[in-house]
Amino acid sequence: MNIKITYKWLLDYLATDASAYELQKYLSLCGPSVETVEKVGDDYVLDIEITSNRVDMASVYGIAQEALAILPQFGKSAKIMLNPLDKYRLNFVTRELGAELPLHVKIENQHLVSRFTTVILDNVTVGPSPEFMKKRLEQCDVRSINNVVDISNYLMLSLGQPTHMFDYDKIGKATMILRESKQGEKITTLDGKEFELPGADIVIEDGDGNLIDLCGIMGGQNSAVTEDTKRVVLFVQTYDKVRIRRTSMTTGQRSMAATYFEKDLDEERVIPTLVYGLELLEHHANARQASPLQDIYPDPSPTKTVTISAAEIRKVMGVELEDDRIAMILENLGFEVKNFAGNYEITVPSWRKNDIALKEDIVEEVARVYGYHNLPNTIQPTVYVKQPKELDLLFHYQLKIKDLLKNVGLHEVMNYSMISKELIDTLGYSDQEHLFLTNTISEEIKYLRRSLLPSFVKIMKENEGRRENLKYFEIAKTYIPRKTGLPAEEFCLAIGVNTSFWDLKGILDLLIDELHIENVTVRNGTNPLFADNMQGEMVTGNKVLGTFGKLKPVYKDRVELTKDIYLAELAFTPFIEKAKLLPTYVPPIAYSVIKLDLTLQQSKNLGYAELEALAYKTSYLLRSVELIDRYNDKLTLRFYFGATDRNITEGDAKMELARINTLLKS
Amino acid sequence: MKDIENLLTTFRDRLHGIQSLHDLEQLTIAYLGRQGVVNDHMQKLKDLAPDEKKEFGKRMNEAKKHIEIALQEKKSAIMARDESEHTVDITLPGTAYPRGSLHLVTYAVEEITRIFSRLGFIRVTYPEVEWEYFAFDSLNMPKNHPGRDDFETFFVNGAPDPNYGKMIMSPHTSSGQVREMMRVKQPPIRMISIGKCYRPNWSTKHVPMFHQFESLCVDRGINITNLKGTIDYFVKEFFGEHRETRLRPHHFQFTEPSFEVDITCDVCGGSGEIDGAKCKVCKQGWLELAGAGMVHPNVLKEGGINPDEYSGWAFAFGLERIMMMKEGLKLDDMRVLYSGDIRFLEQF
């Protein structure tokens, strides 16, 4: 959360010779990050980021407490001028009460509210706020409404404890029942918004059965202070933070009060806030206390202590820091420090009880105020740690394959790991087989991919027309659900082109060649995503490495692609398991090699792979075969003949080719 | 002797008509080859009277010399002419080779891996679909921590595990910290893990899938100065020697102390001002870069490592963020990274 305070407001509590800009610099280095300082009139507005563990700093006085410890580290003076925790104690209230107005409080579940305090004031004059208050609030982005509401906000910014003001006369039967809401109950908050509650929210019901407060979030409209209000209840509480956050998030009502209450507030600051509020209402709204303070606090938090030695602090910081300096830093932060010969017994102040528990927490306090910028940069000693071989290979081949594909003109894409149900349905998959996000923020990204190919269909449709030729690849995980446990996360390589089936096949051939994967064969495939007549599986041994093919016309039609697209998907790990850095060396033939071309009619009965195999079987002089041209259903092949022990003649080669040709025709 | 005159005249005529090096080569062979005109003429020597022989021989040698020089000169002339006449428009494009592209994230991943391998850090990968235990509980994040709720974390419909809790999409790479401790069992740990993370956010600055880059170092005697040193080394390698870093206090559940890492702004050079006006990119010369800290003792304990004996640091960078902060890239919308738009992808 971020808060805004003004420099002059801070000076009410803290005497210092540090300027607003110096405060920004020094606080940011050692404490809360002051994101901006803006000069407004004769004052400066500081915008400060407060981390979730340090809500105790989220106020003018909270910043004063931090500055007290930090500024002296930079040679700046710092002294607390006004300590509201000391000043606004219960005994500060010594007024004679006139009429004692009743307020019947019933708390159904004490876990909802760790401290509950109220005081009633009468004779209230609702009107404009005093100038200083109005100006400060507006500088800090809080709209001025009237003196009563403004005092409530002024208290929150001053001390970091939200408060609420009820119109006493609008509380039915002067009764408050603090309880959990039931699902479906309705309340209209101060800002006129009506909410149907999810249930188990903290609410207050009055004696007439009306909900008058959505606790910690915003008060009810029915009990709000208006111009006609004469009597108010000043109301200061600390709530169960988890419920506050839940209610605030589910209703979308992110009020400033909620951002405080959803963190751990200090119960010890409740009374000072109430008493200070009483003073402000008396001074600026002409009010008169009309009831005793009611304080329900059955279970006060115990005081915490942490024990640590100076040596332990120095060890983690990596520098020599004197004992006195350590003690001074901690004391300025509000800790009580007892030094027993280098062993500190440290008492944690109430406002830090939720974030300080361990030695490490103490080290952090000392180190940050000393200044991380004062610590040297020292890289730790390098040691040998073995990388698991399979990871080494995984990353090595990912890069190798990426570079290869890039260098032959493919574009690497990274798609979301989740796809839509619509895409799953369109492409004939079943959503039942996919894991899905139960709280997705968009239907576009709901189902975890089992295959990378649906994403390819999507992006190739979206990019059709942007470029004539589209050639994509992606290496990413797929998520295959298992009966129990986490899904199998397997890296896959997918390729998609809109050029031709042979272009795709050529890329796959190149991959196999580059990685020296041996004994790869292809056979007709059965992937339902692909056209029946144009798809295959790459196989080595009994292992299917992957499938490739043309997108089935029915799907092409459904997604309204103009051009055919050709897709391939390989399981990455099995694929690279067969890869080799180097192939087996074949010495060049020392004798003549005769090349002869032959044009053949393609045959339905004899595939090219079989044809090639048959040719090798027929002629032991055959060294290699190349497909050099294809035209309609005619193939032109180039045969290379040669012997390893003698020169052969062209006649020898022609005879070999004739034998092959005869066999192929038969 | 008249023959020699005729021979030279014919030669000059033929030479005159020659335009190419190829034709010149043919003429050279025709005159100076083994069976060429000159050698052929020499045959006449044996039929001459002795007093004529000497003169003929001398004249033939002169003629041969003359031919050789003429051929050489012609060759030089043709070469010179070829160079001067056949000018080439070198501004025409060359033969087109296919040029593909790698995703920006790949470049960053490789760069980071390279930089850290020099410090002896190994790269690992851990599940993206994770148990709550590894993403939260083992990282000292209590059950009611806001980061664990529906608004910060994606939940997955898979059956929960009795020990590890619900199935989620890992919202950070830190889920790998305790997994790595369990894997190595015994420090030293020097790890980087770069992976996809998921959070329910979608805007120019946030995408529901993004990458983080995590580093974890656990050993005897690891202190804050080591974390500072390593971050400073990385930043100078990745962004340049002129960039400075600083650590500021921050808060994370799984580190104690926790820091935010800032880097000097490249737009204003770290001054916070451009021509007297406030720099719009940074905060007083600094940009937030990453979260870091000393590994929380509870996290070490979860990983089976004794916090009294060992200590460690950890940090996590948003990969997209540090990439977008690279000088000169000028990419300001994160959503385009995962849009598949070819007009974006092909540029890298």
Description:
The complex is a heterodimer of chains A (666) and B (348). Chain A has 666 residues and is an alpha+beta fold. Chain A is built from 20 helices and 32 strands. In chain A, the strands form 9 sheets. In chain A, strands 21-24-25-29-28-27-26 form a 7-stranded mixed beta sheet, with helices on both faces. In chain A, strand 3 (33-40) and strand 4 form a beta hairpin. The longest helix of chain A has 19 residues, at 389-407. The N and C termini of chain A lie far apart (83 Å). In chain B, the strands form 3 sheets. Chain B has a 7-stranded mixed beta sheet with strand order 1-4-5-11-10-7-6. Chain B has a two-stranded antiparallel ribbon with strand order 2-3. In chain B, strands 8-9 form a two-stranded antiparallel ribbon. Chain B has helices at 2-17, 21-32, 37-42, 50-85, 104-117, 132-135, 176-184, 224-239, 297-302, 319-324, 342-345, and strands at residues 122-124, 129-131, 167-169, 189-198, 209-219, 245-250, 255-264, 273-274, 277-278, 286-295, 311-318. Chain B is an alpha+beta fold and 348 residues long. Chain B is built from 11 helices and 11 strands. In chain B, a hairpin with a 2-residue loop joins strand 8 and strand 9 (277-278). At the A-B interface, helix 2, strand 3, helix 7, helix 10 and helix 12 of A face helix 5, strand 1, strand 2, strand 4 and strand 5 of B.
Task: Please describe the topology of this protein.
The complex is a heterodimer of chains A (666) and B (348).
Chain A: E1 2-6, H1 7-13, E2 14-16, H2 20-30, E3 33-40, E4 43-49, H3 60-70, E5 78-80, H4 84-87, E6 104-107, E7 113-122, H5 131-139, H6 147-159, E8 164-167, E9 175-180, E10 186-188, E11 194-196, E12 202-206, E13 211-214, E14 218-219, E15 232-239, H7 241-251, H8 256-261, H9 270-284, E16 288-289, E17 294-296, E18 304-309, H10 310-317, H11 323-332, E19 336-340, E20 343-348, H12 359-370, H13 389-407, E21 411-412, E22 418-419, H14 421-426, E23 447-448, H15 453-463, E24 471-480, E25 488-497, H16 501-514, E26 520-524, E27 530-540, E28 543-551, H17 553-558, E29 566-571, H18 572-577, E30 593-601, H19 608-618, E31 622-631, E32 634-642, H20 650-665
Chain B: H1 2-17, H2 21-32, H3 37-42, H4 50-85, H5 104-117, E1 122-124, E2 129-131, H6 132-135, E3 167-169, H7 176-184, E4 189-198, E5 209-219, H8 224-239, E6 245-250, E7 255-264, E8 273-274, E9 277-278, E10 286-295, H9 297-302, E11 311-318, H10 319-324, H11 342-345
Parallel strand pairs in B: 1-4
Antiparallel strand pairs in B: 2-3, 4-5, 5-11, 6-7, 7-10, 8-9, 10-11
Helix pairs in contact in B: 1-4, 2-4
